[in-house]
Amino acid sequence: MCLKWMVELHIPDIIHNHAQPITLPELVSILQVPPTKIGQVHSLMRYLAHSGFFERVRIHHNIEEKEAYALTAASELLLKSSELSLAPMVEFVLDPTLSDSYHQLKKWVYEKDLTLFDISFRITLIFNEAMASDSQMSNLALRDCKLVFEGLESIVDVGGGTGTTAKIICEAFPNLKCIVFDRPQVVENLSGSLNLTYVGGDMFKSIPKVDAVLLKWILHNWIDKDRIKILKNCKEAISNEGGKRGKVIIIDVREMKKLFMEAGFQDYKTSPLTGYLSLIEMYP
């Protein structure tokens, strides 16, 4: 909750805009914190510094030496003004809407065709914002894996949301035809471009035919039975005509590898990405 508090009050951005480490009096003045709450804010900032989100430094102000807070690599990733900000992802993970959905289990049992997330009306908006921020971070990883996409003429990003990842791929490979495939209500009002189109559908039924299928942060959401169904549909979607060797590209945790053979794939190759993710190429 300290992390949620920090992001919601834009504290990393306040320190960044301050252009130097910020003292507690300066911070509470900008935040307009009531005098009765200054002690609690001090405790929260010290806890966040202890957790590695801020660095406590000593600065000279006039003739006095004061304690101040500076950004660290962790808090720089939470700058909302940054193109690579992970602040929306933090807000999604810690949003009450997400936790509230798990208090709706009784309603979910009796409501036909509703998922837990559908019951909480705000979840779609904050989820799409979170996935977009994660995709911007993935931009760095994808630039290092350009060989994965070379030689492809078409690719479908399954569960691609608003198309942030697909747009990154389109920019890097202007001749590659990209399809963003997601639920109809997600893509119905989105506009494509010359090499980017949006298609609504159900990945458990069928996936558009292409040279390659991209699954980014999809499989970990499902139980093994559903994951295998998705992978089998991906296998059906990729083309092996004219000497092409279609493939499925997965960006997720490495533990997914055990399911590949069960879904009918014969070979795979793993490339490490930033953090705990891997890029996995699967071949039928």
From TrEMBL:
<dbReference type="GO" id="GO:0008757">
    <property type="term" value="F:S-adenosylmethionine-dependent methyltransferase activity"/>
</dbReference>
<dbReference type="InterPro" id="IPR012967">
    <property type="entry name" value="COMT_dimerisation"/>
</dbReference>
<keyword id="KW-0808">Transferase</keyword>
<dbReference type="Pfam" id="PF00891">
    <property type="entry name" value="Methyltransf_2"/>
</dbReference>
<dbReference type="GO" id="GO:0032259">
    <property type="term" value="P:methylation"/>
</dbReference>
<dbReference type="InterPro" id="IPR001077">
    <property type="entry name" value="COMT_C"/>
</dbReference>
<dbReference type="GO" id="GO:0046983">
    <property type="term" value="F:protein dimerization activity"/>
</dbReference>
<dbReference type="InterPro" id="IPR036388">
    <property type="entry name" value="WH-like_DNA-bd_sf"/>
</dbReference>
<keyword id="KW-0489">Methyltransferase</keyword>
<dbReference type="InterPro" id="IPR036390">
    <property type="entry name" value="WH_DNA-bd_sf"/>
</dbReference>
<dbReference type="InterPro" id="IPR016461">
    <property type="entry name" value="COMT-like"/>
</dbReference>
<dbReference type="GO" id="GO:0008171">
    <property type="term" value="F:O-methyltransferase activity"/>
</dbReference>
<feature type="domain" description="O-methyltransferase C-terminal">
    <location>
        <begin position="122"/>
        <end position="253"/>
    </location>
</feature>
<feature type="domain" description="O-methyltransferase dimerisation">
    <location>
        <begin position="1"/>
        <end position="81"/>
    </location>
</feature>
<dbReference type="Pfam" id="PF08100">
    <property type="entry name" value="Dimerisation"/>
</dbReference>
<dbReference type="InterPro" id="IPR029063">
    <property type="entry name" value="SAM-dependent_MTases_sf"/>
</dbReference>
<keyword id="KW-0949">S-adenosyl-L-methionine</keyword>
<protein>
    <recommendedName>
        <fullName>O-methyltransferase domain-containing protein</fullName>
    </recommendedName>
</protein>
